[in-house]
Amino acid sequence: MAPYGSDDSTTEDEADDRRGGRQKAARYVVPVAVVGVAAATIGLVPAFAGSGDPDLPKVSAQQLIEKIAASDVQQLSGTVKISTDLGLPDLGGLESSLGGAATGGGRDGSSADPSSKLMELASGTHTLRVASDGEDKQKLSLLDKAAEYSVIHNGDEVWAYDSKSNEAYHVKDAAASSDSAEKGAKGRSGDVPATPKELAEEALKASDDTTSVTVDGTARIAGRDAYKLLIEPKQSGSTVGAISIAVDAKTGLPLKFTLTPASGGAAVVDAGFTKVDFSRPAASTFDFTPPKGAKVTEGDESKSGGPAGRGDVDKGDKARPGSGKGGEDLGKEFQGLNVIGEGWSSIAQFDTGGEGLPSENAGGGDAGRFLDSLGDQVSGEFGSGTVFSTRLVNALITDDGKVYAGAVTKDALVKAADAAK
Q: Which CATH number applies to 12-311: 2.50.20.10, 1.10.10.1590, 3.10.310.10, 3.50.50.60?
């Protein structure tokens, strides 16, 4: 489909204005490149059919980006559908075991700890109920067939409850301000984006000369009229094909987020509202008292460094791939972590300080054979190593312990490793 409301005759001054406006909205827009394979496990499948394309006034891509940045929806409730299609191999339950499910615990030994529980969004298909009433009141519920998991933020308290295990997790911060509460709310989800707005903010943080941004028509999402913002890498070598964000025409709230891979096929990420209501939720929505007999774990803020274990995540935000060029040092918190390249072709590189993974050829035995079966053996001027792949993020671990990872192709990783020698 041709860009909606686009104009190929953009003047140089208009182009400068567009870049300036994008920088103003920089907190909303960045290429989806990741430090490691674990961070890549956010992905969702196509799910939400529209009911006809509405006839809306034409807008430019810049106007739509600014509309997202200016969106200030304080009250809403609704249902979000999320699925994952990263093309990962079936590990026969190993993934759950590694995630802590086998021991029933997160960071503090509770199955209700959000740091591990909400990582379930990294695989499978899920339905979420969300509600918000300003910065101090939010609720997110992960619905299962016979159970429900909820995280409730109400003022200076955060509760998480797992009905399956009848366990609750509690954090109280008497000094919480609106700002710290907002930061804590994201930390509570383990930095796993769970709504179209959060996904859009992650995808819209660095629109620059490496990116094409256009308006690609309109859509009808959850009964709402919406514009479709289309974001495409201009660079070669990225595994990202395109990102589409359906933006509510009235409020500017992202209603749906879809990431399709350059390799084609089903979307890697597709999250969208199936129902949404912008009226104020009932106050009781954010009330919580642990059920009788529930095991309650109190979060240790002295260890986590903030509400619900935010810890040093804010510091880590400085180290997002794409924030630096040509291997820029990303701060004391990430010594040894460099970013090679820029934009959609950014590759995070760091040294584990040890040997690479065991392999069958190196006498790794059964463990080596298992790891070899999950990855592809590669070699080059850098030596040899193994590439572990998903449909979005690939990671090369060399035999001498260096790691190269990003939303780039296997060939791009090998070239980066060769160039770093």
A: 2.50.20.10
Please name which of 395, 413, 186 lies closest in space to residue 308, comparing C-alpha atoms. 186
The Cα–Cα gap between 178 and 156 comes to 9
Residue 111 confidence class, pLDDT cut points 50, 70, 90: confident
Helix/strand/coil for 117: helix
Domain with CATH 2.50.20.10 in the chain: 12-311
Alpha-carbon dihedral angle through residues 145, 149, 154, 159, given to the nearest 10 degrees: 150
Euclidean distance between CA atoms 282 and 304, whole angstroms: 31
Say if residues 151 and 140 touch (Cβ distance below 8 Å).
Answer: yes
Q: What is the pTM of this model?
A: 0.71
Domain 326-420 has CATH 3.30.310: yes
How many degrees, rounded to 5, is the angle at CA 306 between CA 132 and CA 164?
Answer: 60
Task: Give residue-wise pLDDT tens across range 23-50.
Answer: 433 323 323 332 222 222 222 222 233 4
In the numeric block, the tokens 């296997």 are attached to 410
Half-sphere CA count of 140, side-chain side, radius 13 A? 19
Q: How far apart are CA 239 and CA 387, in angstroms?
A: 14
